[in-house]
Amino acid sequence: MNAAFAISPPPIASGSLAETVRAWYCLRVMARREHIAALNLTQRTGVPVFSPRIRVAKSSTSGVRTLVTEALFPGYVFAHFRYPFDARHVASTPGVLGLVSFGSTPPAIADRVIEQLSEEVRKDADAPIAPLFEEGALVRIIAGCFQGSEGRVLQASPTSTRISILLNLLGQEIQVSMPGDQVIGTDQSGGNLPAGLRVSRHPVGNRR
């Protein structure tokens, strides 16, 4: 898990359902619409909602890697309200499918559990994003003016999705910087690369 963020509990307004909140409960919501259900809950009921989301690197069928944001718990969010007094109002919120229960009564989730989850989410959000490619990796550019060119990763910053690549153009080695989603990994054998860019025991990133 590279990074995450959550919808923070809103300020409790006087006269809202949240004014006499008792415990956290887990709600089933529409998959891939967790953030929408969380927003509907805060706007309709005023109860605090915890809907953690994470950023992960994924590859498409064409091999393009990019960062996407997903729910940490797909199909679920947490809400802090009085049960059973507010249950009907909460469960009837658009996007909410119902309360998670085992038997007739949904289990309350201890405050410390949500606090610990929230703290872990905050730490992950502050953590640097892992680079999409390692230094020295052989890549092929699939978009932009250098499309079709191959080279080696010189630098992959842990705080950015841009990478620096060493290319060989017209007999000259040049360094270019581009978004990581414009390149894909390729065969490590060297293929049609110029000899100077083929695999060696020392990553290109260490060259001076």
Structure in words:
The protein has three helices and twelve strands, in the order ββαββββαβαβββββ. The protein is an alpha+beta fold and 208 residues long. The strands form three sheets. A five-stranded antiparallel beta sheet has the order 11-10-9-8-12, with no helix packed on it. A hairpin with a 2-residue loop joins β10 and β11. The longest helix has 16 residues, at 111-126. The model is unreliable at 1-21 and 188-208 (pLDDT under 50).
Radius of gyration: 24 Å
Order of strands in the sheet with the most strands? 11-10-9-8-12
Q: Write down the secondary-structure element order.
A: EEHEEEEHEHEEEEE
CATH class of the largest domain: Alpha Beta
Structural class: alpha+beta
CATH domain topology of the largest domain? Alpha-Beta Plaits
Classified in CATH, the superfamily of the largest domain is NusG, N-terminal domain
The percent of residues in helical segments reads 10-25%
| Percentage of residues in strands | 25-35%
Any idea how many domains? 2
List keywords for this structure.
disordered N terminus, 208 residues, 3 helices, Alpha-Beta Plaits, 15% helix, five-stranded antiparallel sheet, alpha+beta, four-stranded antiparallel sheet, SH3 type barrels, disordered C terminus
Helix and strand layout, with pairings?
Layout: E1 3-5, E2 23-29, H1 34-44, E3 49-50, E4 53-59, E5 65-71, E6 76-81, H2 87-91, E7 96-99, H3 111-126, E8 138-141, E9 150-156, E10 162-169, E11 172-179, E12 183-185
Antiparallel strand pairs: 1-4, 2-6, 2-7, 3-6, 4-5, 8-9, 8-12, 9-10, 10-11
